[in-house]
């Protein structure tokens, strides 16, 4: 990646009126969160069927064993936002970024201080009781015994992530489409652009006239079709550099 490309991207963002970011697993890899897809990804090691809503209803303890290992214990439970998450949070705080649409369920954008975050596939930060619908903060849920249960009614708690047989929550989907149509710059970070329907968002932004700035370690489905500027490399390095130029430090 050339400095020229970075400056060009920064200038484009500085002169824009409505900037959004669309993020994927690549932005959280540097926080130690394993991606789901690709070689060595979680789906190559675990049974994705455990994340089917009907299966979860039938065998919650089995699904929960995996949910706990993947999202709440050890490295995943301790994951902190990295420089890329923080750079986006700072851009928002300085009025340079309107919204983040993320495919990630790790909650790291919120932890970094970002406020307007659309979690397209939900989040592990909260859970909802399957029986009474009570929503609770995951941090307040004891998980020594799985599945964790609702303090109000004893029903099984399910993390508020979108399972395979579930639709994208309608209000999130609508809000994401509205952002894609309204923005004039869409910063794509750490995503290969293959997971539907989320992957359509940058394409829709481009169709409505937005400039797409892509930050990825390798070429993606967007690079030649959708992106105007391609910044090749790690998000944890490029985004802070970009944010500094945009903010003007
Ligand atoms: Zn309940």
TrEMBL record:
InterPro entries: DHS-like_NAD/FAD-binding_dom (IPR029035), NAD-dep_sirtuin_deacylases (IPR050134), Sirtuin (IPR003000), Sirtuin_cat_small_dom_sf (IPR026591), Ssirtuin_cat_dom (IPR026590)
Domain of life the protein comes from: Bacteria
Enzyme Commission number, as recorded: 2.3.1.286
Listed PROSITE patterns: SIRTUIN (PS50305)
Key words of the record: Metal-binding, NAD, Transferase, Zinc
GO MF, any single term: metal ion binding
Domain Deacetylase sirtuin-type residue range list: 1-249
Active site, UniProt feature: 121
Residues where Zn(2+) binds: 129, 132, 150, 153
Protein name (Swiss-Prot/TrEMBL): protein acetyllysine N-acetyltransferase
Organism listed in the record: Pseudodesulfovibrio senegalensis
Classification lineage: Bacteria, Pseudomonadati, Thermodesulfobacteriota, Desulfovibrionia, Desulfovibrionales
